[in-house]
Amino acid sequence: MAPPILSLVLPSETGRVLSIQSHTVHGYVGNKSAVFPLEILGFDVDPIHSVQFSNHTGYPSFKGQVLNGQQLWDLIEGLETNDLLYYTHLLTGYIGSVSFLDTVLEVVNKLRFINPKLTYVCDPVMGDEGKLYVPPELVAVYREKVVPVASMLTPNQFEAENLTGLRIVTEKDGLEACNILHAAGPSKVVITSINIDDNLLLIGSHEKEKGQDPERFKIVIPKIPAYFTGTGDLMTALLLGWSNKYPDNLDRAAELAVSSLQAVLQRTVNDYKRSGYDPQTSSLEIRLIQSQDDIRNPEVIYKAEKY
Amino acid sequence: MLRSLSISRSQSWLGKIEFRIHISSLLKSEMAPPILSLVLPSETGRVLSIQSHTVQGYVGNKSAVFPLQILGFDVDPINSVQFSNHTGYPSFKGQVLNGQQLWDLIEGLEANDLLYYTHLLTGYIGSVSFLNAVLEVVNKLRSINPKLTYVCDPVMGDEGKLYVPPELVAVYREKVVPAASMLTPNQFEAEQLTEFRIVTERDGREACNILHAAGPSKVVITSINIDGNLLLIGSHQKEKGQSAEQFKIVIPKIPAYFTGTGDLMTALLLGWSNKHPDNLDRAAELAVSSLQALLQSTVNDYRRAGYDPQSSSLEIRLIQSQDDIRNPQVRYKAEQYQ
């Protein structure tokens, strides 16, 4: 008799997450940014590394290996043969090709076949600040095939615009974008960063019952004058973790996630300054390990304001 | 075989991130940011860990990286394989890195000045060619940081059985052991490396002395069966030629089999011996206490689930035992040998 999977069999406030993201040997992006925080929050995380690179692609160079769709599927088949495919959550982030994204869609179907209640948390990574940084063909695949199967979606402003065809200039636009996305699929939508009138906002929306008005809120986020890598991946992981703990209070989950993230970023900036480096000089690796207490037990400084 | 990708950006560091900047330029220079884990004072370090990755379960890097991160280390994992699960299951599927692909990653790091590590950690290695590539990594890292601490778990087998290709034994003995700073063999591996049979505690201590003479100043034989008891024997030769400080810790036998415990133990020894560099006994007490608490929790949890823990080998409850890793209650004390 094979041993039971304890993360499923024993009662807990956490779950069993399959996370398909990049792996960089050095630095904190992709799975390096998402897995540790979820583990700190008590989740068993099964990472599939879609690539293994020396460092992220923002450095002057990088070297490494890329997984293709078949190799991803081999891992899924390996898990299936051992009855290891019952997951409570699936998490995906940056995906670099249509073929890999199509395979991920097959993974979603497979996992949902085994657990119809699977929560698919999807960060539809496509670009930022007006610029696409994935092949343009992915946009339609996200819009038409991925969004409809997501349980929770965490686009930034640019991605929300691309997925809805709507330009987001006001908070009302942001809320409308969430409604469009709810109608297409996910019951939870968090637009993780929106620039409105020079303020940075997060807008969250939870459609508790299909057809009902969603509960919506915003959180005003301070702008930190620096650029970081890995923050989107970290944010989505934190939203997964906290929204699992507070399934009916997306606003509470978002407050905790934002507060953790801001603490990580502030510590990162302070630490670069302490080392004598001007944090505005280049993009920064986040101080994830040194901020683990802020991830485990965030002090909620940023409050949600309900609409 | 994984497809290899090697890209060099013709754009400069500044050029790559230019698109994210609203105003003309915030960038004052082309200076790359410092590696904070090296530049800022800390009790931890920057570890390169070359081990297996399994999607599910806790062995290799899945067992070693999280504990070190909990202890405050920045860990850079190179995954020597990516398998669905460990090879003790009825089947497994996945991909294996070859020596060249390992070296590609090292070159990628080198091109970005990212090869200064305080520690190198290795565990299970499945082929002579990969082990030879690892030896080149040791040399490369030491040429950049001569004070590199290489913590080597010379994984070869257990309980009288070899579970790596036999050709590896000589490579470990002749080439790897001389390069290691700390070695964490089990009883079988210590016997293989010293060609010395360990029956008594005195034999265990003698094996440590043989290993010191060959290379590592710190040796921990992580589990030895003597007269029905389970012991750990640790030995620290503080100065070449001096007598080593040696100790033992008696470990309770837990009637169950686990996977990943050796990988976890070596990681904990790395972590705690970095914090207590002159007190290997203290480091071992903390490591053993963490491990035992985790194993006990694991057995209890399987029982709670209605499963007899002796039915098969068990995956450890690593995530659920993180407090025991961060702040172990020291229950198992070291007894110094005089």
Put the structure in a nutshell.
Two copies of one chain form a homodimer. Chain A has 307 residues and is of the alpha/beta class.
Features of the shown structure:
homodimer; 307 residues; alpha/beta; ten-stranded mixed sheet; two-stranded antiparallel ribbon; 14 strands; 22% strand
Layout of secondary structure:
The structure is a homodimer.
Chain A: H1 6-9, E1 16-24, H2 31-40, E2 44-53, E3 61-66, H3 69-81, E4 89-92, H4 98-114, E5 119-122, E6 127-128, E7 131-132, H5 137-146, E8 152-153, H6 157-164, H7 171-184, E9 188-196, E10 199-206, E11 215-221, E12 228-229, H8 231-245, H9 250-274, E13 284-285, H10 292-296, E14 305-306
Parallel strand pairs in A: 1-2, 1-4, 4-5, 5-8, 8-9, 12-13
Antiparallel strand pairs in A: 2-3, 6-7, 9-10, 10-11, 11-14
